Amino acid sequence: MTVENVIEVANLSTDIGGKWILEGIDLTIHRGEIIAIVGGSGAGKSTLLRCMVMLQPFSTGEVVLLGHNITHLNARTKQDLQRHWGVLFQQGALFSSMTVAQNVEFPLRKHTRLNKNTIAELARLKIALTGLAPEAGIKYPSELSGGMQKRAALARALALDPELLFLDEPTAGLDPESANAFDELILNLRASLNLTIVIVTHDLDTLWQTADRVAFLAEGQLLAVDTMPNLVKSEHALIKRYFNGPRARLAQAQYE
Amino acid sequence: MSGIKPHFSKQQDDARVEISSDPAVIYCKGAWTAGGIVRFQLPKTLSGEGSLMINGSAVSALDTAGAWMIYKLVNLAKSQGVEAALTGFTPEKKAFLQLIGDQNITLPVESPRLSCLAKLGQRGWKIHQDLAAVLAFIGESVHFMWQTLCYPFRLQWRELFTVIQQTGYYALPIIALLSYLVGVVLAYQMGLQLQNYGANIYVVDLLGVSILREFGPLITAIIVAGRTGAAYTAEIGTMKVNQEIDALMTMGVSPVDMLTIPRIAGLIIVLPLLTLWADIFGLLGGMVMSRNILDVGFSNFIQRFHEVVSFHTYYMGMIKTPVFALLIAAVGCYHGFRVQGNADSVGRETTKSVVHSIFLIIVADAIFSVIFGWSRR
What we know:
Chain A is α/β, with parallel strands linked by helices and 256 residues long. Chain A has 10 helices and 10 strands. Chain A has a domain at 88-161.
């Protein structure tokens, strides 16, 4: 299979209230790849993610998603395009007034013409795929623990069989066991569903375990895009500082 | 090439099966995707004795929905005592089918239906809890109000002034406009009747008493209930959803003290002032209308007003307003605290807050009328 570029970001810049959040970002993401975006707080990671999923308009530059330049899209193509990715938000962003099953069924109801029973079965299937017990389906998001909410949100993001998955800090706030399970789940899903996954994360274990490549953002600029072992050897001062703390070195020692 | 494939484009080839009986093979063809299986029906019966092959060499696309359908086919065969084997699928598709087939999606057991008696009990218990919550809220509010009266420096002055600005100053235009219009309408309706008797000048008596005693306070209170009471509920409710209330409690700050007291105090200060404002504009509207259709000039109106409308009338209207303010603010805050952790709940409580406070305002107004009636005897 030839390498296909799923996302191409070229010279992307954006400002919020006169302050430049992103400056000249160039990033290409291939099909089937897991790419992690890292960087200190306020480096513009989430803004980059929001630009890529068309939540945040940008000032200059281009974003090409699945072969479509998102600045010149008519509403119809935009809608079609949006069905091809799933987004897992940092807080889950589950609809609080619906049960988990209804949350997962929602995109299926909106975007497919399957009958009710099939939709309900598919929703239960997605919930099972993310490792939740079937009982979780009838619960409301507020009745679930943080880790279960994340899984439920992932089930919703996967509802339409997206090719592309955006995860905003998927393991933040999870206990180590759940976080590990989540990492495995991500790898598993990539292997079985052939997903392309973009992760914004601070979790060093996730970086070492799951990411094929890591994009390092600092002060709105992309300093490096490389594999984890290469990135930690980087001589750049900011990258060195990021990966030289005791936690980072512990993680590095463990995985190398 | 994957590109964009709309989930239900017309030209998509539907998922379908072709069944051959010797040897027993089901050939799956077309796109087994969420879009492709929409029109697909499972065959009623399957041929084959003991074993059956499901061939997937002609499957053009497969996603979870399609895999699920194939898995259902396998299950259907199994239910008829036929062992189905998957053949001809690419290794990736086969692995994917395996993954889907492995999931356990048995329906959770639904909680048993409750008997009528149990439901009645639940209702009763809920009412009991609601009443307890109301009493607790009143108790806490009164406690902190008393403390604030004893030690005024405890009051959140900043918060208080914000409340006064938000609920008072910003409400001035809408209240002026609406009470002006009410004055106009009242003068017009009463004027039509009075003209029949040539008693035009009595419009002043009627307007004075009705606006100062009833319409001014009531219209203002109802506008404020819709405007401010709802805002109180939504503000506190959103804080509750965001766990801000919990944060306050962990700091040893009572949310009632911190959030309710300034709101109640602010509204008690503001509502009488707003009522005065509404009285002025209501009478102004009445005056303008009286001159236009009843030939009662401004100077006549004012002179007559001095003679027939006593300060007592104004006072009777004004004395109700702090009570209305207390009701609006307390109901608004109470419903804010009752919000549970979801977006629906904020909307539900806000609606309840407005309905309940308007209801209580009108009941209170009726009680005041009765009390004033007695005291006159």
